[in-house]
Amino acid sequence: MRLPVTRHAFMSRPAFLLVACLLFATFLAASSPTSPQPADASILATPSPTSKARAALPTATIAPPPVAEDGHYSNPDLGISVDYPDNWLAQPGEEETTLTYLISPSNDPVVAVIFYSPMPTSSTIEAAAKQLRDEIVAEDTDVDYISDRAMKVKSGQEGWMSEFSSVNTDGDPHHFVLLSAAQGGRLFSVAVFGTKAQIDDERKTIRDIMASVTLTSPGLYGIPRDQAFVLAGGESNNPRAYDPATGQGNNLIFSGLVMLNPKLQVVPDLAISWNISPDGKTYTFHLRKNARFHNGRQVTAQDVIYSWERAADPALASDTVLTYLGDIVGIDARHAGESEHISGLKAINDQTLQVTIDAPKPYFLMKLTYATASIVNRENIESGPEWYRTPVGTGPYKLIRWEPLKMQLYERNADFYSRAPAIRFVVIELFKGQGIRLYENGEVDMTGVSLFDVDRVRDPGEPLHNELVEGVSMCTDKVSFDLAQPPFDDLKVREAFSLAIDRQRYLDVVQRGIGVPAHGLYPPALPGYKHGQKSPDFDPALAKQRLSESRYGSADKLPPIIFTASGFGSDTGAGLSALVDMWRTTLGVTIEIENLEPDKYIDEIYAGRHGQLFFSGWCADYPDPENFADALFHSKAQQNEGHYTNPTLDTLLEKARVERDVTKRIGMYQQAEQIIIADSPAIFLNHDLEFTLVKPYIKGYVSTPINIPIERYLSIQK
To answer: pLDDT for 315-331, tens place per residue?
Structure first.
């Protein structure tokens, strides 16, 4: 598979007051005190039927949005409601964690702010509330803590009430009443502030507001929050990304005949069983009789044939179909447009499929776990060009709602053919923000950890440390040369560029020292990885010598070199900047950078529209070195975008394909790796480590070095 954060802090007290005052001034200029503006409409509103683009998207049958009422603030998604006088003004907060401002109608108003923050798991309500109280006046003088006491909010949760006063840095006195209570991993607070006289004038109203605070189980887009597995994500404007035949698919929606389980074993999926002929070339799959598409139609062998023949259709231009289905007899002819059908596929009956491959290959079943082999619904595909927005698959979840740039909502497939997922809903929050911040706020249940936050969460004293899961990934970050373009048709130039890269420095600067420098193709944990391999090493003197030995002789005689990257405008990431700087410093070479739109980057690389250098990292799709050496560097490999060819390597890889002795196979792939390293068709940079935060109530999570449909195995225990 090709590879295509900060702490939460309370708003500082001066900013807290400034925002409230500015909002109040704006509010007085734009509104009448007798006609308060209602709070923001609920996010549960469904797409407008007048919008053609949005009308086609799936929508769930869920509870209607609450009606906004004067005198009542309610946020069912967070699970908080508060009553306030009808004549007070309500203004939505500008910060995500600041829910609303309530402003009294007098000329000298009192301001109440409703907001939330993460509730520390090891803290008491008293300790958390006092910490918040202290932070509000941290920069003030003459702080006077008047009272602190426990109390219960209207819904019964334990709360803490504080009253205190202070003088700010401008010499202005302020008086505060603060109530805090916890629910759903969040500390909800109502802070009222003004002068002492203002607070005394509104004392009864403030007590009534505090007494009305109600905390309930949070919801999310009209569904119970405690029944949803929530993740942060994004979306693509390239439809090919959503098609399993051209992108990486979606294992919530789509499934195939077989899949990898958390132990990376090939196990039945749509196929309940299979037989292999004595010569290892014919596979007979028996489909589950209860396997159905999301629309209720039974899955048949003809559906498998349709899906795979569609993936091989030359009009679709799939850049993965030959990689994962190319062993099937007749697929080359279908992909070349020479046949309408794949001769190696035969439906014995509705529930039996016969697949003939070109040679006995021990890894063939593993290839069928990749998205390209997923089964799609013909009626869905032929419904129109935007079929992917209302996908009909066979997987464990159905997409029931999609609001572009906002959210995707999946519901458990009640007719799922295998063990039904324990979690009813999966929610993907689209472009909502930084994963670790959302995680700390309790807005997502799992997130990857960026390199900038790894040291922090690895610290045993960090509250998130106990929720960190570390693992390896079977990935190799690399830069590919296009050997069809000068100067990289010259081995000496390729060697010079590779020897000019200090991999450890690259890892330290770009990856913050996290990962493993790559001295070969295979990542750790992949069968065939050779521990202790030390070539090629960083050697500036030898790099210069190799360049001088090339037919170009020196850097100033090289043709213009373009590095194609994924990005916008003139933006360059740290990794690309580091590489360009090393080549300039060591070899005296100037590199021109060309950015391609990220959503279209893979398509453009596959189509050959790139410079002489480009990023082309790769992650294992199944645990076999064939997925690296053969899939990337055989001269006829679909993923060989660098036009590398070596007949000796091809012969070796072709023999390894059919070798049934495991030890011999691994030895052949290690030999293949040495040939690849010697020919330098790419610069292998590093192998990654993975860091994931998982909430304690998410059970069943297992870190795997290869992407698997993990949602099937999870449950929520709150």
So the answer is: 999 999 999 999 999 99
User: Is 8 in contact with 441 (CB distance < 8 Å)?
Assistant: yes
Token pair 């007798």 is found at 34
Burial degree of 129 (CB within 10 A; 0-12, 13-18, 19+)? buried
| Cβ pair 626, 526 in contact under 8 A | no
- Classified as helix, coil or strand, 14 is helix
> How many Cα atoms occupy the beta-carbon half-sphere of 518 within 13 Å?
26
Q: What is the pLDDT of residue 70?
A: 81
Report CA torsion sign: 371, 372, 377, 381.
positive
How far apart, in whole angstroms, are the C-alpha atoms of residue 683 and residue 360? 33
Angle formed at CA 156 by CA 153 and CA 159, multiple of 5 degrees: 45
Looking at the predicted structure, is the pLDDT value of residue 667 above 60?
Answer: yes
DSSP letter (8 states) at residue 170: T
Contact 503, 162 (CB under 8 A): no
Kind of pairing, strands 397-403 and 516-517?
unpaired
Our CA angle for 205, 207, 211, nearest 5°, is 115
**Cα distances (Å, whole numbers) of residue 156 to 124, 159, 177, 248, 343:** 16, 9, 20, 47, 69
Eight-class DSSP state of 390: S
Segment 432-442, tens digit of pLDDT: 999 999 999 88
CB atoms within 10 A of CB 658: 13
- CA neighbours within 13 Å on the CB side: how many for 75? 17
Tokens representing 575?
């990794």
Q: Which secondary-structure segment (H or E) carries 546?
A: helix 540-549
| Cα(513)–Cα(190) distance, integer angstroms | 43
